[in-house]
Amino acid sequence: MSRKEAIITIVTFLTLLIGMSVLFIILPLSNYSEWERRYLAEKPEVSIEKLKNGTLAEETETYLADHFPFRDMFVTVYSFYETATGHKEIGGVYLGKDNFLFTKLTDDEIDPKDRKASADALVHFGQFLSEEEIPYRVMIVPSSGLSLKDKLPAGAPYYDQDAYLDNLAEQLGGSFTDTRAVLREESDYYRTDHHWTMSGAYKAYEVWERSMGRTPVSKDRFRSVTVSDRFLGTLYAKAKPVRYQSDTVTALEPEGVAVTVTADGKTLAGLYDETKLNSRYDAYSYFLGGNYGELKITGTGPQGSRLLVIKDSYANCFLPLLVTEYEEIHVLDLRYFGRPVRDYVKANAISEVLVLYGADGFACERSIRKLER
Amino acid sequence: MVFSSIVFLFVFLAAVLVLSLVCPMRFQNILLLAASLCFYLWGEWRFAGILILSTLFDYGMGLLIGYFREKEQKGAAKAALIVTVIGNLSVLVVFKYSGLLVRSMNALGASFRVPAFVLPLGISFYTFQQMSYIIDVYRGTVKPQKNPVSFATYVMLFPQLIAGPIVRYNEIEKQLQERTRSLTDYAEGIRRFVCGLAKKVLLANAAGAVYETIAGNAERSVLLSWLGLFLYAFQIYFDFSGYSDMAIGLGKMFGFSFPENFDHPYEAKSATEFWRRWHITLSTWFREYVYIPLGGNRRGKVRTIFNLLIVWALTGFWHGAEWNFLLWGLYWFVLLTIEKCGFDKILEKLPNVLRHVYALLIILFGWVLFAHENLSAAGSYVRSLFCGSFYTAETGYLFCSNIGMIILAALFSTSLPGRCAAAFKKKTKEEALTPAVLRTAVMALVFLLCVACLIRESYNPFLYFRF
Q1: Which ipTM value was assigned to this complex?
Q2: Do A66 and B393 touch (CB under 8 A)?
Q3: Range of A239's domain?
Q4: Is residue A276 located within the same domain as residue A335?
Q5: B442 CB near a chain A CB, below 8 Å?
Q6: pTM value?
Q7: Of A66, A81, A165, A198, whose CB has the highest number of CB atoms within 10 Å?
């Protein structure tokens, strides 16, 4: 190596190494990453105990990685490298056809014990409700990984969601409301987010209404509003893929209906939270503004019609469709709600129950067994 | 602390390099020793005491053996040597092998409490380094090191402290006293380090992750099992040789010249050649301090084979405290003995392609033994290489999804990229600026890619997404 080349090499390397360290110290640190919608790691507290057991080393590494100068750029560079070397999955997300992203979930990740416990909890809860003569429906909505499975990368390992839902349907019998036949189109799911779209939710709403022997409220009765045309959701945040297509978020909003919404004791502005539209990464939170342990919507339905919905975030865009049909809609998210649900049913004179989850989330969710209490 | 981490690169290394640039030569050893202690404490606080005590012990015993030699008290020198070797080996036995010993005795009917020792970082490397020193002092091939800082620097030098290469004392005795740092050495050290970092971060880690997926799949197809085996071979080679490259590179940056440890082992055409190319410093160590003292090949054929048996049983066990490693050592003993007894003559007559295929197959089957702690798991892996469905959709997916990494790994397992770079260098003028800038740019990009990978690895999406 010539002297000249040696000098170029040394200067380049030391500039990169020391330059980054200096930038880390002088650049202002932010504590929130908007595109990932998460708080970044906090500065680790130093203690001999943590040094001994190795957690200090781990926390320091995470802290440095989270606040590294130009971190977003580095994450993109990495995605670019992964894509260029043929990778069809990044950060637990499959990069599917037509820019569809999918949550990677395989059969190994679903514990058969959890699977049984969840199904049992739903069955037992149904028995309790039938004794109380309260109608009961369970709607576990297929995720895009099943409905649009042709768009998964060829041969990609994916859990047998069909079998999973068949099994639930068999155990729950008539209470299981199957939406697999209607959720088949691209427009039913987001490309960059793990949720369903308003279009998907409305189709499921129709199926559910018919299963209850009612006529669904016609689509024309709602105002269709496009609230964002540049939405980048959770799957985007996990993968930060090189190629992506942002989503359009549409809402079917009940017109001229006066509702009051209270969440965990506080009164909300309404069914929608427009402040969430300030960030293109947060547009799905427009529906109800996020998740709460206990939410109550007072609608315009007949007196005594009180629906209890036990749900995850899939229900957030679904619930506004129901406000003209019930006097009260009680919404519990068992991840954040700890009191016995059976007592809640009695105390609030519930007249009807709906369990509504996305299949992926339900398969990994353990809190549903709280229904046993 | 591992080299492939942001803390190491941007906090530790950045600081040590700056300090080393401003620190006068006579304080360099103190600086390196202090840095090495910090390095060890950060990763292995609990066992730092063992490293320090063991260093002090060998330092003292080295002086003592030297003293007896000077006074020509051969018996005393020999006794001191034996005490030291036993002392070093007992540390190794207690911390590395006691769990295995007790479990094995329990399996035979005893019922002792299994000791809960965790292997202290780097113990296999630093005890071997110290033993090389002690034995050489006894033999009189090196003088005892009087300066405790120099001796401790030799033992604890952070580049080779935790994963080799195993540097024998006589190889860097002079450099501990006096070394020069030329600009070209420094620059070559940087390149070597980045090269090793890339091997570890971009190839070994990636290959390892896919291998884990494949090994965890009980219903893998025949092709997938083969893919898994190749990926494991890539993982272990790039991990280990990547670490050696980083160590050698760092050594150069501080003015040391460490011995080479790998020479494209998967290009070997026989078992014998493989072991001349794989973990060279370990093989050299066993040759110098076990095989030759036992008489090597000078005491007849039977004794030679016996000596080989000892060496390979120990080599196997050195790699890990489980019986499968012993078995893996014996596997190589058998193959090497067969080659020594005349099979090598037959091999030489075969076309090169066949010799490569033969060597690759025995290496790969060796890795099956190496990878599985219990024999039935190894057996079922071998079975999956031949029985069951030939191909599944997942096979195609995993192959295509990792095609880039597989090609890079295969390419960099050979000497081809190195020869291309050399040819490119030959074609251009020594003083030409463009190729120099080009090479540096490639290095910088590879380094940034490694950093990107490290940042991404520690980025674990939060529960928040499960909403």
Answers
A1: 0.89
A2: no
A3: 101-372
A4: yes
A5: no
A6: 0.90
A7: A198
